Amino acid sequence: MLVRDVMTPNPVTVRPSDTLLTARARMEATRCRRLPVLDEQGHLCGIITDRDLRLATHSPLVLRERWEDELLLTRTEVDACMTPDPITISADEPVERAVDLLLEHTISGLPVLEGDRLVGIVTVTDLLRALRDLLRSGRP
After folding, report:
1. Which of 111, 115, 88 is nearest to 8 (CA)?
2. Rounded to a whole number, what is the distance in angstroms from the first to the last CA of the chain?
3. pLDDT tens column, 31-46
4. Where exactly are the structural domains of the chain?
5. 8 A C-beta contact, residue 64 and residue 138
6. Residue 83's closest CA among 124, 117, 125, 34?
7. Residue 69 pLDDT > 90, yes or no?
8. Which CATH architecture has domain 3-137?
9. Which of 14, 48, 118, 128 has the greatest number of beta carbons closer than 10 A?
10. Is-contact 99 127, C-beta < 8 A?
11. Do residues 34 and 50 lie in contact, with contact meaning Cβ atoms separated by under 8 Å?
12. In 79-97, which positions are buried (b, 16+ CB within 10 angstroms) versus exposed (e)?
């Protein structure tokens, strides 16, 4: 089984210059927890997660009013919080390789590339669905 068989194709993305509010809105609208970040040429330059957003707004060490969190979300750009140059995988790699990368790097999602073009994302959720389907099919 290949990554292309289990990945989510054409993931929703953001730009480095988008605000954290835009990233949060896209995550909420698509019920996802991470977004690939594409530069102006459409090349992958980072990834931002719901955890990145939480860390940016909910520090237990800083007491703020709610309006201050909203201000932070509207004025802070994605590139301030994203992970640059994320670990990626090719659509033609075996699923086992994706699992190995996720475990090795303690992450929960990998942007999927064909050449330098983003074609999907494979997440722990995608892999669990594939496992469930395999188990239900009765195949070894």
Report:
1. 111
2. 13
3. 999 999 999 999 999 9
4. 3-137
5. no
6. 34
7. no
8. Roll (3.10)
9. 48
10. yes
11. yes
12. bebbeeebebbebebebee
Residue 23 token pair: 């990233």
Does the pLDDT of residue 71 top 80, yes or no? no
Q: Which two tokens stand for residue 103?
A: 């475990």
Q: 12 phi and psi, to 5 degrees?
A: -65, 140
What is the band of 102 on the pLDDT scale with cuts at 50, 70, 90? Answer: very high
Task: Quickly tell me which residue has 């927890």 as its tokens.
Answer: 33
pLDDT of residue 62: 55
Q: Which two tokens stand for residue 85?
A: 């140059």
**Cα separation, 96 vs 2, whole angstroms:** 8
How crowded is residue 74: how many other Cβ atoms within 10 Å of its Cβ?
11
Can you spell out the DSSP letters for the chain?
-BHHHHSEES---B-TTSBHHHHHHHHHHHT-SEEEEE-TTS-EEEEEEHHHHHHHH--TTS---HHHHHHHHHH-BGGGTSEES---EETTSBHHHHHHHHHHHT-SEEEEEETTEEEEEEEHHHHHHHHHHHHHHT--
pTM: 0.88
Name the pLDDT band for 26 (thresholds 50, 70, 90).
very high
